[in-house]
Amino acid sequence: MKVTDSDSVAIRFVIERQLAAFQKDDAQGAFAFASPGIQKQFLTAEKFMQMVRISYPAVYRPRSIFFEKITTIQGNITQSVLLLSPHGVPLRALYLMEKQPDDTWKINGCFLVSVEAEII
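RESULT FIELD:
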């Protein structure tokens, strides 16, 4: 799938809005940017928020955010974002994005890797 400039803008917007929702502890707002599959997996916004808070502190409360280029990893449109964790550890968040039938984008997963990790 080819990612257009408008897709790139929309993808960044979705991630920025979800990160902003995490900052405000807005579970419903953050959950709204998750794909239907992720929503089905967690069932409630509160369970989703608890998982992010515990397992993804760099996503939940990043000190800084820097968007890198969009790439495709194993067939998934992936937005790479450099994050600085609350403890000052740099990490790369790989956001797997999913285009919805209405042409909007949702987050279909996020993986944290060390900054030194090579993205193929």
